[in-house]
Amino acid sequence: MYTLGINAYHGDSSACIYKGTELIAATEEERIVRIKHWAGLPIKAIEFCLKEANISLKDVDVITISRDPKAKIGEKIIQTLKKGISLKAVKDRGANQLKITKIKSDIAEALGFKSADIKAKVFYAEHHRSHMASSFFVSPFEESAILSIDGMGDFSSTMRGTGKGNKMKVIDSVSYPHSIGIFYTAMTQYLGFPHYGDEYKVMGLSPYGKATMVDKLEDVLILLDNGLFELNGKYFKHFTDGVAMDWEGGSPSIDSIYSDALVEKFGPVRQKGEELTQYHMDLAASVQAYTEKVIFHIAEDLHKRTGHKNLCITGGVAQNSVANGKILENTSFEKLYVPPAGHDAGTSVGSALYYIHQEQNIARPPFKHQAYTGARFSNEEIKVFLEGKEGNIIYHEKEDALIEAVAELLHQGKVIGWFQGRAEFGPRSLGNRSIIVDPSRSDAKELLNSKIKRRESFRPFAPSILKEAVKDYFEVVDDVPFMEKVYNIKAEKHSVIPAVTHVNGSGRLQTVEEKDNPRYYNLIKRFSEKSGIPILLNTSFNENEPIVNDPGHAYDCFARTDMDVLVLENYVITRG
């Protein structure tokens, strides 16, 4: 049975393909069309998945969609009538729902088929159930509590449940307009970061401030005795106007959500590009600290209700790696699993898994890490690409000596674009589409932010570390293969690895094992033998764009930045 999973007409559109319970491929549309957070029908991603499976659309048995137009339909109608949401918001939502119901025929037409020729049935999996499935069904846990938190999907913003074997049960949920994700987005906009997906900037800024305004935020988002929360509607526009979103050209954008009352409470809005003051840093710290408190509140109540020692967390808010690193310390849970694609792109996988396990009652396969599911290119393809390039470049094939050569370049202080294997699925580069640097370079942060990444100076870089060395560098020993948790780096190591130590002494950990990524593991190991440091600075291979997907994207990024070396599989490229 071939199952094609899709996240469509929603931010971070994506597709995946399963053969039985085997994930053959998964990718985000943005990687191919080169528009960040691309929203719409992910035709290019679908084409890629079908090609990887060596099938056509006619061979697909089921198309699963991580949306359910019928979900909470009664609550939607009541909210519309009670709050008087604008006619435009109602029309926009209706148009979006119509697209969801026409997906099969739209895919068929885009791929040159008639809808009648496609045997696949369409299955709609509610947004948060898809999130939950994307985490629990691929986790190492036989039983677990499950928590999904994001902005909003299918009229829910939070859902809690449990999983056992190949089944999940929903305990409760929080309905729109109440949402932690909307709260965090509103404060992100207020702090002068207006773009869709900018929330991680507030997380990166927060360590520069002190959480002095948590008490003021307690009136904005209110904790409830039932373990959940509600927003104070006077501080948000969407209680009356809806969330005004635009998907024109595939690039999602969202209008300001905060109301005049929030401006009165916290003062003038920081304009985009305006200087960041200590007040802004303190507010960022307060927003992050209070968000963590809300997550702990929800999770601890979930533990009391279920008694489970394991927790699977997912959804956009669950991409808050700082909060993830504190959950076990601040709740009664003993183990935590966060999937590599906890954001909305992961719901394509989740919708497929929900159908396979929940609906079809098929047993789960043995646990394994699944993050490398995207595009790959052979050395032969890369050689043809390089031979077709004009300009003053030098490249050498170093199949046997590659690891030694690149480790030496890193030891010399070079900044390297590292492209190998299958692209990662999810928002993190995990050693296949990465920019890598010696973490002992004290100037690496400034160099990468100003000359290569061209981004804000306060944003940190992550350490990729050999799993067996975590105990020597981090205060918490944990298995973190997907860079999904932040932990404190031991104080005596701050000066050893300054490039990956954030201002508060923390690092967004990625543990690397040979079984998951042998080439990246061996590179770090050889670098460690030269430098004495079993760590590489790892940041995504891009420059204010989606992570590079193919050799052309990687080469173009190399050519327009100050990167020293580009590695494409076995080929090492330098400037002439």
List the helices and strands and how they pair.
Elements: E1 2-7, E2 14-19, E3 22-28, H1 29-33, H2 43-53, E4 62-65, H3 73-83, H4 87-101, H5 103-110, E5 121-124, H6 127-136, E6 143-153, E7 156-164, E8 167-175, H7 180-190, H8 199-205, H9 214-217, E9 221-223, E10 229-231, H10 238-241, E11 245-246, E12 253-254, H11 260-266, H12 278-306, E13 310-314, H13 321-324, H14 327-330, E14 335-337, H15 347-359, H16 379-387, E15 393-397, H17 402-411, E16 416-419, E17 433-437, H18 444-452, E18 462-466, H19 470-473, E19 485-488, E20 506-512, H20 518-531, E21 535-540, H21 551-560, E22 565-568, E23 571-575
Parallel strand pairs: 1-4, 4-5, 6-13, 13-14, 16-22, 18-20
Antiparallel strand pairs: 1-2, 2-3, 6-7, 7-8, 9-10, 11-12, 15-23, 16-17, 17-21, 18-21, 19-20, 22-23
